[in-house]
Amino acid sequence: MRARVFNRTILYVVLVIFAAVFLIPVYLLIITGLKSNSAVGLSHMWAWPNPLGFSGLSQAWQQVAPDMLNSVYLAVSATVVVTILGAINGYALAKWKFRGSNVIYFFILLGMFIPYQSTLIPLIRILDKVGLFDTIPGLALVHIVYGIPMMTLIFRNFFADIPGELIESAQIDGNGYWGVFRHIMLPLSIPGFVVAAIWEFTQVWNDFLFGVAVTDPPNQPVTVAIVNIAGSQHIQWNVLMSSTLLASLPTLIVYLVLGRYFVRGLLAGSVKG
Amino acid sequence: MNQSGQTTASESPVGVNKIRRPRVRVETLWAIFTLIPSIILLGVFVYYFIFWTGYVSFTKWNSFIQDMHFNGFRNYVAIFQSFRFQSDLRNMVFFTVFFMLGCLILGLFLAILVDQKIKAEGFFRSVFLYPMAISAAATGVIWSWLLNPTTGLNLILHAFGIKHVPQWYLSTRILPNVHIASISGGFPLAMIAVLIASIWQWSGFAMALYLAGLRAIPEELKEAARIDGAKAMRLFFSITLPQLRPITTTAVVMLMASSLKVFDLLYAMTGPGANFVTDLPALNMFDTTFQGNEFAQGAAIATVLLILVLIFIIPYLIGTLRKEVSK
């Protein structure tokens, strides 16, 4: 019995040490964000903010607020459009399989794994040709297209778990393709929509590659903005850390509030049926 | 996830159809019709663009002016002869191997800890997984300061009295430094910094996968494995690990795919580094194409990268989809 208590203690000590190590970056972001301009200085990076000051945060906010707004436009519009597309695709592929539907599913899924570098050159050419290069709608379109595979996957797996008997009885009641979708699938798929929307929002918000390739200031998303700030010579260190904190807050808050659904999206991405 | 009977039911929700109907069901037409927009979009943005990039990689388009004249394999020869791409390949091998091992070992370790019916399990799980919710760009910015040789973690090492602090990503040392082609072969020590940041970000993913795997192991097997002492080790290697093999396959494929695509983190954290000690192909492609305007060579790098990813993603995808169909 005593050995057991001892082992439990070691277990918790190890857990707490690892948790502390994992939290170091966020600890640094927060204490630096709360330092006044006089208290910053790289030599006492780890010191507790004393006195507390919000000048770093407010300067950072002034700097990245427009880019945050760009990211909001992007993430919200792409998420709304692509979850709807994903739900429609997932329904078709899960419940109305036809000859060749698995082949179509395979080619849709493959789009999720390719390195996007192999699409960038034509992507930029074509966006330029249709006048969408360096625009927020253009970048949103890119996110919508490359979000289709994952959204289709999430909804297809979600709908596959809805029993066929429910659909049969709905059909007996006179429901067709869309009747079944509206009266059976949609009411049961709220958690599916939450998983999909969280995933897509996080993906779009956190994207950097498309943002840096397709937009320039002032149309850049916030991820590109903080990297540009980090690369500039005259930047106060607390302002940079505060900008990074602000840029990370939306997805962190979503994760803290709806983490359960985030994990489901993460595991769904591994294509386990 | 599929209970027996569900899959068959989903294949023909109408049930057994006794009347012969030669014509296509209207539902099937709807299904195909609603898939068309996505098929067109992905057909253009994925498959046509890949084809286009592949085509560009065989042209003479290596300046700002588009020149689509055929150039044979010269772009591929050029990149494989270049110091930078050779460095990339060296870095990629080391990065991928250590990244995967790091994430798998740490992820499994954390999953086992969290699976011990601990208090505050939700808290610890959240802490180990939250880096996945942060952008790789932000991760790069933060870790470029944490692993900056003159500040960050080195301040803490100093406080512990360590005089010779690591140079982290500014280190130019390569071990064991043997000459291969035009580069020095070996492990660039600067990569350790990139590995720390990316393992910090991704090990929670491996943990989440393993935790799901551990929870799927039958309770009797797990109870037996939970006994303390030397016996537990044997049970772990003879029961738990074999049970986790499918999860490990999934994790390896996913981590490999992500490690080959590392771009944001490098761009934000280190850049290519001195003598390209922290460069990887995805970053090289971007610089070559959009800074150097060597579109054809950039396309060649992108195509090599694509082939590397497809080589193991396609068999994996076919495998998982087959298994699902036969279930």
UniProtKB/TrEMBL annotation, chain A:
The chain crosses the membrane at residues 12-34, 72-91, 103-124, 136-159, 180-199, 245-263. Pfam families: BPD_transp_1 (PF00528). InterPro entries: MetI-like (IPR000515), MetI-like_sf (IPR035906). The keyword Transmembrane applies. It is a multi-pass membrane protein. Keywords: Membrane, Transmembrane, Transmembrane helix, Transport. It is found in: Cell membrane; Membrane. GO terms for biological process: transmembrane transport. SUPFAM superfamilies: MetI-like. Residues 68-258 form the ABC transmembrane type-1 domain. One of its GO terms (cellular component) is plasma membrane. The keyword Membrane applies. Belongs to the binding-protein-dependent transport system permease family. This is ABC transporter permease.
UniProtKB/TrEMBL annotation, chain B:
The chain crosses the membrane at residues 28-50, 92-115, 127-146, 189-214, 235-257, 295-318. It is a multi-pass membrane protein. SUPFAM superfamilies: MetI-like (SSF161098). It is found in: Cell membrane. Signal peptide: none annotated. Residues 89-318 form the ABC transmembrane type-1 domain. InterPro entries: ABC_transporter_permease, MetI-like, MetI-like_sf. Coiled coil: none annotated. The keyword Cell inner membrane does not apply. The keyword Transport applies. GO terms for cellular component: plasma membrane. Keywords: Cell membrane, Membrane, Transmembrane, Transmembrane helix, Transport. Its main location: membrane. One of its GO terms (biological process) is transmembrane transport. Belongs to the binding-protein-dependent transport system permease family. PANTHER family: ABC TRANSPORTER PERMEASE PROTEIN. This is Sugar ABC transporter permease. It comes from Alicyclobacillus ferrooxydans.
